[in-house]
Amino acid sequence: MSDRIVLTLRQPLTSALDASPITADHLAACTNVEITALSLRYDGEPMPVGELFRVQGERSPHVVLEGDLEHASGIGTGQVRGTLVIEGSVGADVAVGLAGGSVLVRGNAGPNAAGAPPGASRGVTGGEVVIRGAAGEGVAGCMRRGVVAVMGDAAAGAGRGMIAGTLVIGGRAMPPVGRFLKRGSIIVLGEVEPDPLFPYACTYRPPHVPVLFRHLRTAYGLPLSSAHIGGSYRRYCGDMAELGRGEILAWSAA
Amino acid sequence: MRVNGVWIEDTFAEAFTMRAARVVITAKSDRWAREAALKLTGFATSVIGCKCEAGIERALAAEETPDGRPGTSVLFLTMDKESLPTRLIERLGQTVLTCPTTACFDGLPAAPDRLGVGKALRVFGDGFQASKVIAGRRYWRIPVMEGEFLIDETFGMQKAVGGGNFLILARDADAALVAAEAAVLAIEPMAGVILPFPGGIVRSGSKVGSRRYKKMIATTNDAFSPTVRPLTASALPEGVSAVLEIVLDGLDGGAIQDAMRAGIHAACGVGGEGRVISISAGNYGGKLGPHHFPLRSIMAPGT
């Protein structure tokens, strides 16, 4: 057993890679040989991991992916436990249907990050997803439970159909945000313009925000300032076309 | 044995197994965290009449608390595990929930026995409450007129020790109070232990039962009451005209023992010129409580 498994991309990807078998819990059960032989789909064809990545380590719940993975989709799909760190940017569908453990993306993430698998009514059902850069369309769609934190901007459709859980957006949240939100919290530190279906409630200091932000700062080193941690937030309740039990918390001031 | 010239009786304190929770209250300022803690721990001196024992363990700096605000740690004890959640729900609901700016956190998150305190209090939100899971802990956000009250869903419960004690036998009441105050000052900063009585000091130590009244479960400790010395089997040495007791509850026997040692040293340290005559302890012959704290072992050099 190693302290971690490191997959280093041998050459830049030029075609689409379906990397959905790469999850921390899946790799944690595999030897180095088994990981190397694990089949992915590259440009629509089966391709063993070993041809695309140099594999170091085995049988560890801590997995690190190195290299430009913007063409790789589905990494961390359905992960139940373990930690998965992507050192650069990643393509679509990262951490789709995550159920536990954590996925950290140090760069940007493509569309449907921490979203729901095709046709599924639920997205993330547990665990934590942290994206240090920006997120593509539909981040945290249909999330049922867990925490998703995007430190950069979030493209349109963030938090669409969230059932519960928490989405943090450190940058700008492009409209629409939280459409069809049932419960759940969307905390936005940058610019946000809630839909009319999110009526304003009040400006206050939500007591759970310091607990959450201190955890994210400690666990992932996120640059959340004391102004964010102890600041005031405008609370918008919505989506009133749904249950109306969700909220958008827009950072107001320290 | 003598400590600073004060005689240490060859006896022991007898204590009981209790169940404890640690409640961490945070607020906008030290003042409000303490205000809530004072109300929470009010009328919680003894299980004999209060159904629980509670006290402030220590003040917490902002960096020690889950939400980064100033806080106060409270230990809360009952005799059995069934009544601990009941007392916590009653008291937290009426004192911490009602206090401006406070939030309430479990101070024993690793304890496997969990009490659904926040889970019960959440219904004050009348359906408007919401939960958040952060780092594996579920919190309840209860809407209130000021904004929101945040509380852990469950609180840890562990076995604890209640009823550690020592008696300060002094020349007069003033000397006893000075010595007892010194003991309290020495114990107060210590973690894992509380002094549930007013200012940490008891003037009315009790014995089990009554000589005269069948319904009384506890009556005055006449053996240590100076005014009835000629009328009872007094345990008071010559020259003693006042006795004060320090009662300690702790999360474990080690915490009680350390606190007793610190407190007795402090009490003896101000006992010059014969002001404090001796240190004794309360027990029931060793038959009731499983935890015994022999004074001379505790105060032996090198311990």
Task: Explain how this protein is built.
The complex is a heterodimer of chains A (254) and B (303). Chain A has 254 residues and is an alpha/beta fold. Chain A folds into two domains: 1-67; 74-253. Chain A is built from five helices and 16 strands. Chain A has helices at residues 24-28, 32-37, 49-52, 208-220, 226-229; strands at 5-9, 17-18, 39-42, 45-48, 53-56, 62-66, 72-73, 83-86, 102-105, 128-131, 147-150, 166-169, 185-188, 200-204, 232-238, 246-253. Chain A is elongated. The model of chain A has no long low-confidence stretch (mean pLDDT 97). The two termini of chain B are 14 Å apart. In chain B, the strands form three sheets. In chain B, strands 1, 2, 3, 4, 5, 6, 7, 11, 12, 15, 16 and 17 form a twelve-stranded mixed sheet that branches. A three-stranded antiparallel sheet of chain B has the order 8-9-10. At the A-B interface, helix 4 of A face strand 8 and strand 10 of B.
Total beta-strand segments of chain A: 16
Number of helices of chain B: 7
Span between termini of chain B: 14 Å
Percent of residues in beta strands of chain B: 25-35%
Brief account:
The complex is a heterodimer of chains A (254) and B (303). Chain A has 254 residues and is α/β, with parallel strands linked by helices. Chain A is 13% helix and 28% strand.
List the helices and strands and how they pair.
The complex is a heterodimer of chains A (254) and B (303).
Chain A: E1 5-9, E2 17-18, H1 24-28, H2 32-37, E3 39-42, E4 45-48, H3 49-52, E5 53-56, E6 62-66, E7 72-73, E8 83-86, E9 102-105, E10 128-131, E11 147-150, E12 166-169, E13 185-188, E14 200-204, H4 208-220, H5 226-229, E15 232-238, E16 246-253
Parallel strand pairs in A: 1-6, 2-7, 6-8, 8-9, 9-10, 10-11, 11-12, 12-13, 13-16
Antiparallel strand pairs in A: 1-5, 2-3, 3-4, 14-15, 15-16
Chain B: E1 2-3, E2 6-8, E3 12-26, H1 30-40, H2 47-50, E4 53-60, E5 71-78, H3 83-96, E6 103-106, E7 113-115, H4 117-121, E8 130-134, E9 137-144, E10 147-152, E11 155-170, H5 173-187, E12 193-194, E13 206-208, E14 218-220, E15 242-250, H6 253-269, E16 276-280, E17 291-294, H7 295-298
Parallel strand pairs in B: 2-16
Antiparallel strand pairs in B: 1-2, 3-5, 3-6, 3-11, 3-17, 4-5, 7-11, 8-9, 9-10, 11-15, 11-16, 12-15, 13-14
Helix pairs in contact in B: 1-3, 5-6
